Structures are given as structure tokens and as C-alpha cells.
Amino acid sequence: MIFNTKGNLQYMMKRTLLILLFLSLSMPMFAHGDLSMRIAEKTVAISEDPNNSVLYFERGLLYQQHMEYDSALEDYHKSQSLGNTTKELYYQIAEVHFLTAAHTEALQSIAAYLELNSRDLSAKKLQAQILFQLQSYKKSLEGYSYVIHHMKDIRPEDVLEYCNIILAENNKNYKGALEAIQYGLDQLGPHTISLQLKKLDYLKESGQTERVLEQYNYFILEYNRNEFWYYKKARYLAEINRPHEAFISLKLATVAIEQLDTKFKNMSPVIQLKEQIKSLESSINNQKS
Of the candidates 233, 229, 207, 209, which has an alpha carbon nearest to the alpha carbon of residue 220? Predict the structure, then answer.
């Protein structure tokens, strides 16, 4: 019994020393604390069982989290050479290649994954993203369209990425991009600010003047602090040569500022806005004269 205790103690001391040695040789890894220790522990486990494909895969995941992509890829390939043929391995290899801009290799790996799990939306999304980077916009759009319309937990950034692909495939297809924005608003709620802002951009870029003004009105009505939106609307009206309406919007911006509490009036963004209002008013008056 005493011997076993000594043996266990010696084993633990040896293991601890190996971990400390590994960490001392990898000083930059200390930036991630617990993750660094987990990598060190996995390295010791591999030294004790060097033909274990699972251990290499698990350390590869840790390296990937640590953004040591070359080391992650090396471990993934080692795991593969030791007989790991799981679909998860193909996915991680594809992801690392994507993160390191090795897009051709990434496409091959994600295709291998999809052969094993053709309905995985995360994989289909990654494939569409890879195709986008390879400038295969039509295929990318087809793939991402499927994902966006089958995804349960859609996020604003997913919708915006989808819009980027739509316009990459056809830079005049603002109709399609605006339909995608509306789909996102229907799914996420009408007051998703990032989508409403992008909607404003697309309406401007496609020259839909009256809808742009409606969009400005949406922001004016939706937000209590609307003085900035009145100014932005006025600036747009001036740009499209509607000075009378621009002047009215500037006056409404001034009224909105006057209704603010003193502490807000004295803030630098509001002070700067008042100067911008004066400058635009002066510009409009000069155009009239």
C-alpha cells in the first residue's frame, strides 16, 4: 500500500514537472491561462499514449481555440493519420483552413464533411462563406439562401452577410438585398437597429428617395433622442435639392435640442450638432440667394 502511494506520488510529480516544462517552453501561451494548462495536460497525455488519435484531435481543438492554427492543423492531420475518420475532424480542418485563408483546401474538407452530414446548416453556411471568398458568388448565394431560410436562430449578422453575397453576385440587386433585410426584420423583430440602418443604406444606394425619407421618419419616430435624425434627414434633403424641406427638418432638430435637459445640451456631440445645423442652414440660404 505504501509502495503504491509512493508510485502514485512519483507519477503525479513527474506529470506536474512535464506540464511546467511544457509551459516554460511556451511562454506566450500564458496569455490564455486555463487554456494553456489544458494544452499542457493534453500534451503530457499524448506523450504517455502517442498513438491515440482522439488525444491529438482534442489538443487540436484547444490549439484552435488558442488561435495557434498551424499547430491545430498539425494535430488534426496527425489524428487523421492515426485513423480518425469522424465528420467532426473534417469540419475542424475546413474551419482552420478557412480561418487561415486556405480556401481551396477548406472547400475540399467541408465537402468531405457534407458527404457524411449533408443537412448540417453550420457546414452549409461555412461552405457558402468559403465559396464567397473564392468568388464563386452564384453557388455561395444558393447555399446561403438555403441556410438563411432554414436556420432557427437567425442573427442580424447572418442577414447582413447574406445581403453582401446577394450584392456580390449582382451589384444592382438592391431589390433582393432589401427583401433579405425585410425577411430578417420579420424574423428578428421590426426594431433590429443594424438591419434598419442597412435598409437605409440600400434605399439610398438604389435611389429610392421617398422610401429613404420614410426610413428617416422611422428613426425620428422610434427614438426619443431624434435631433440627430432630423439633422441627417435635412442633410439628405439638401443633397437631393429639396432645400425647403431640409430647412424645416433643421428647425425641428433645433426644437428637439431645446427640449433636452441642460446636461444633454452641454454635451459635446450636441454642441457639435448645433454647429452642423447652423452650417447647413447657411449653405441652404446661400443656395437660395
Answer: 229
